[in-house]
Amino acid sequence: MRSTAEARRVTVLNAAVSVFARAGFHATPVTAVAAAAGISEAYVFRLFSGKLGLFVAAAGACFDRIADAIEAGAERAGGDSPEEILDAMGDAYAELIADRDLLLFQVQAQAVTDIPEVAEAVRAGYRRVATFVQSRAQASDAQVQQFFAYGQLCHLIVTAGLEQVPEPWARALTAGIRHP
Amino acid sequence: MRSTAEARRVTVLNAAVSVFARAGFHATPVTAVAAAAGISEAYVFRLFSGKLGLFVAAAGACFDRIADAIEAGAERAGGDSPEEILDAMGDAYAELIADRDLLLFQVQAQAVTDIPEVAEAVRAGYRRVATFVQSRAQASDAQVQQFFAYGQLCHLIVTAGLEQVPEPWARALTAGIRHP
DNA sequence: CAAGTGTGTGAGTGCACACTTACAAACAAG
DNA sequence: CTTGTTTGTAAGTGTGCACTCACACACTTG
To answer: In angstroms, rounded to a whole number, what is the distance separating the alpha carbons of residues B80 and A148?
Structure first.
């Protein structure tokens, strides 16, 4: 049944985002994502063209979920000004990455951009998100840039575990970042 | 001669930063850094306690160089206001990472923060840089936060190769970032 | 029922790589 | 010269992992 194979791919992709997020591309064996998806390693290799194909597909799924969340967040904005819409998008993003999988996957993907296919997937993901943010919020270039700069700051805060650091420098970096 | 061993360690560390920066911790064999340093793999293992010890030491060297460059940059500031000093520091940082090794190494280190020793090294590095920036520039928390947020944005720009992308969304993200 | 097609796996295979060990040359001290 | 220490390497060893293949069950079609 063709639909079953397609359903499997979705399951595997969700598992892949979670598992790759922890230890990254090179450090996670495809056995691990197969186990997380509840199927055999051999079948994962049939569903995707090698480990790299799996990772690239997972990157697509990751950015899909991010784009959807931001889009939904924009709908809940309090007003029509760029500031209000960006703020609502930021809140939606913060909510989405509460479980950390999507954030950590992005970090892992950025770390293996020496592989051209991954670099292209990352560009495609940010292209999609950035163009939507700009057009939907009617924000200026500078506002969009700021939006992503503080998004990237979240990556540092989470990977370095700065929320747990009580020292002043860490408090300065984490100040105002919504529920990490 | 003890001094020679110490000199070797420095050589190896410089090589390690460059080599790890390209492909990351898990994807680069220590043979590669040994070759870059011009010595045998076995001797690298004698100079450092395993691959992880080498990587952590390289992280220390990386943040040392960053801190030194920012410190030197601050000396060249045009004035005494926080804005002028932060700007001079930003310029110094941008100059330093022109060769990309230090920037990419930071990305790679952030990607393997699931290893506790690496996470601690990253925190120590940012602790050193952030405390210096804040005390030297007498900047507010918000200014320091902004400084690092746009620094992290540079990581995205470089890893995704956004300087090469002519599309509007990419131009918005790269606008005003000093000579990438 | 026979033949074909899609879904799924267990049991390999081969290679890359982290780390060790045994050994050698240089230099120093007595 | 002998003994000891430091610098350095060549040649393993064992393991983990990407990827393959032969095979099996299910389900459809004629």
So the answer is: 30
